[in-house]
Design a protein that fits this description.
The protein has 6 helices and 9 strands, in the order H-E-E-H-E-H-E-H-E-E-H-E-H-E-E. It is of the alpha/beta class and about 200 residues long.
Length: about 200
């Protein structure tokens, strides 16, 4: 089993609690960001179905909104990061992927009005090269799994690209920074908020 295949088993059983028998009960939530009002369909079996989580909100408020062309949302859930980034980068191609089929279905619904967005159910990083990667990691999968995933992400990034991640300090954020420094040219903590750290890793 590959890295993300193992992640899907462990993460979904201990985090999403997703299974085929889990009853669907979709609901709609809204999220305000930079004078935009976003509407998302959520459901049981996906992360933070009641509201956009604080970590994702902090991450979105930290990203430098440069002229990115190829954006990757890792573990996209119901599509918050990818949808916001596409709205703010209308000329970008956005790829989103998740191991959870319900999350993927929701992401497709939530981005149906957007062009040049691809949502994939996948156990690994989709082929291609990206100049912006964003991630709110599934920490409960364990550091080894997440660190292996960081390595895979690095291999799919262009030169002069940026990788933004948000991690709770109580989940060992400094150790994630230390690991990223073994690969990336620059790794800085660029934001702290209510126990969450946002790191920006640059590949030259």
């Amino acid at each position: 089993m590959n890295v993300l295949g193992f992640l899907s088993v462990k993460f979904m059983s201990h985090y999403y609690q997703f299974d085929k028998q889990l009853k669907s009960q979709e609901k709609q939530i809204t999220y305000q960001f930079n004078n935009h009002t976003f509407s998302f369909i959520t459901d049981h079996g996906v992360f933070s179905m009641e509201h956009v989580d604080h970590g994702s909100d902090v991450l979105l408020h930290t990203i430098d909104y440069e002229d990115y062309k190829h954006v990757l949302d890792v573990g996209s859930g119901y599509g918050v990061l990818g949808c916001v980034l596409k709205t703010l980068h209308p000329n970008a191609n956005v790829t989103m992927f998740d191991v959870n089929p319900r999350a993927v279905a929701l992401s497709k619904k939530n981005t149906a009005h957007l062009e040049d967005v691809v949502v994939i159910e996948s156990d690994f990083v989709p082929e291609g090269l990206y100049d912006l990667v964003v991630m709110n990691p599934p920490i409960r999968a364990g550091k080894k799994i997440i660190f292996d995933l960081y390595t895979q992400i690095y291999q799919h990034m262009t030169s002069k690209s940026a990788f933004y991640i948000v991690i709770s300090k109580r989940h060992g954020a400094p150790s994630h920074q230390a690991f990223l420094k073994t690969m990336f040219d620059v790794v800085d903590r660029v934001k702290k908020s209510k126990g969450y750290d946002v790191y920006k890793a640059i590949k030259y």
